[in-house]
Design a protein that fits this description.
alpha+beta; five-stranded mixed β-sheet; 17% strand; globular
Length: 363
Amino acid sequence: MDSLTQFVLGAAVSTVCLGKKIGRRKAALVGGVLGTMPDLDVFLPFDDPIDSFVYHRGWTHSIFVHALAAPVIGEGLVRLFKGLRDHRWLTYAAVYLCLVTHAMIDAITVYGTRIFWPVYPDPVGIGSMFIIDPFYSLPILAMVIWALFRSGWSQRFGRVLTTVLALTTAYMGVSMVLQAHMETRAQSVFADAGLVPERVFAIAAPFNIVLWKVIGLEEGRYHNLYLSLLDGEQTAKIYTHARNPGLVACLADAPAFQKLDWFSRGYYRAELDGGKVVVSDLRMGLTPGYAFRFAIGEWNGETIRPIPPLRDTASRGAEPGDFEWLGDRLIGIPSVRAAEAVSARPETNPTQWAQAPVSCGIS
């Protein structure tokens, strides 16, 4: 999740564990730093933009690495703060919880986190919460501000903080229940339209768990569906787009494509943009403004050849009318997303979406 949420969650966890021993202000500051430490992997050198994308939230987010780091960091805290010298194991546990909760709330987002590396090397990305969710973050932020302005401990503060952490954790649990509900509901909507996607994936829309983007994936096309908990009986609008598998058929053996296919779990589309084959991760962003787009091939008019990967940032922002549309859909008002309706195609005749491979150049 976002850096502020990581900081305040670490601060809150540390304050619960260590606030009585060193004061809640010191405990909050220590926990805030610990809560951001796993993201220091952004400073690690990577070979290319795709590596920096797929290997972020890597081994520094592993709960097994955290178990090894906790005694080392914890021992430093024991030596630094007198109030912790008789509470070595509690300090170790607090450090571990600050680190591991960072990885856990990252894994609840769609980006993916290699939380079980190296036992299970693939990223876990549940997608039931958006990377920024004020309903989760703001209550914890309020408690951390309260802690920073008062150094001493009080039973009232401890009870309120524990309650806030319990409620925000329950909110995460509710998000996963809603995600399963939206996937089931989407399958019914697709079936009513005569569609049978190979896979269906519901992802929380920006800043809330009321509105959901659902992707129905097929070999040659994908369907976007936006469902709100506040929807009435109206028929949901389905937006269908090409995945263009023929554009990446020549690049199937290229490391860049293999990494994107692996990381996105197959939720990608290819397009030809200015003579470049650009692959987008369908899970992050809204068509056509996906957050992660990479040019990995080049079309010379006859063949497609792999190229060193380049980050494509040409289409990442919100489209005109998106915020009004988002507000309407959030409260269940039927609304067509104009930016997506322009490029959407009819849902019938699925065979015409499986583009034949073009001629492949020598890599």
